[in-house]
Amino acid sequence: MSTVPTLPFDRTHIKPGDRACVAISGGADSVALLLAIHAANTAKHNALGVGLSAVHVQHGIRTEEADRDLDFVRDLCATLEVPLHIHHADVPERAARTGETIEEAARAARYDFFSTLIASGHADSVLTAHTLDDQAETVLMKFLRGAWTEGLSAIHPVVLVNNPGQRPGKILRPFLHTRRSEIEAFLKQSNQPWREDSTNTDTAYTRNRVRHQLLPLLREYNPSLDQTLANLAELAREEESRWQAELARILPQLLLPGKPVRGGGRAVPTAPGESQSAVAIELDRLKALDPALRRRVIRAAARQLGARLSFDETARILALCGFRPYPPVGAPTVAARTGATLTLANGLRAERSARELRLFRAPATIA
Question: Which one, 135, 185, 310, 333, has least CB within 10 Å?
Answer without folding.
Answer: 333
